[in-house]
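By convention, the token line describes the chain's fold. To illustrate:
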Amino acid sequence: TAEQFTVPSRRPGLRLDAGVVDGSTIGIFYDPMLAKVISVAPDREQAAAALSAALARARIHGLTTNRDLLVRVLRHPAFLAGQTDTSFFDKHRLDGLAAPLISDDAAQLAALAAALADAAARRASARVLGALPSGWRNMPSQFQRKAYEQTGGRAQAQQAQAQQAQVQAHDPTRHEIGYRIERDGLRVDGREDVTLVSMTPDMVELMADGILHRFEVAAYPGLVCVDSGLGPVSLWPVPRFTDPAAQAGAGSLLAPMPGTVARVGVSIGDQVAQGQPLLWLEAMKMEHVISAPAAGIVAELPVAAGQQVEVGSVLAVVKPEEDPE
């Protein structure tokens, strides 16, 4: 779902053509290009700068896009010089181009802002002693702990490679946040340079290393989107207690997007090599290969050709040969 879709296009030389608005549900029966931003300027460099700035400031919540990849390409010296051809990604390293715009350190700061905004929301909804900070104690106490996961640029790289991409599981970046609000201000576990200026459920201001940063925080069920001058980031809160039944087992291959199983190339009990195609997933008019992450035996295959699957569904389980289970 496009929880929020806002591109700053109301400026001279910028135009937005989009088939989605806030709240639009994006199914599998769509073309991959859901929106297009166009810029016009006296020369290529100015047009690219205006377009990259508009994309970088866009608020796109709830959707996986190739926005960061596009911004990095638009700012690349080779692109600005007009040196573009079908081998551009190979020449200039797709993984680097598809990396998130926000740095790891800035993403950690954004995760802190998300935790503080959540604390402010809980305090605002408290029926008793709502003026007290979340987790407040009248004696020194432990840090409040929250954890978030952030996916990297792998999904963008897969979209750029389209049918050539081999879709495999990718471990997200985990941000562990420890903080405590005391009488004299904010204490952050592991950081002495961060000062809290203000916090509300949708806006957190932090001073970090002497620089003021404003984080706009939008919380949705199971998702927190943080926008700032440091770059946009989507975070998934990690629950303190998880249901073991909801956890995918080792060797599980999960659907990276909603789609339809086009065909299956293996059966339960088959021995497979690392990188061997197991099945093909069709989504948004493209076919994606689901390959074995390591050599082993196909232990589970809960899908069949023609079956529709949701993102995160288990498509297959590959276990090492020596695994007795």
In short: Confidence is low (pLDDT under 50) at residues 153-170. Residues 104-125 form the longest helix (22 residues). The first strand starts at residue 4 and ends at 6. The two ends are 38 Å apart (CA to CA).
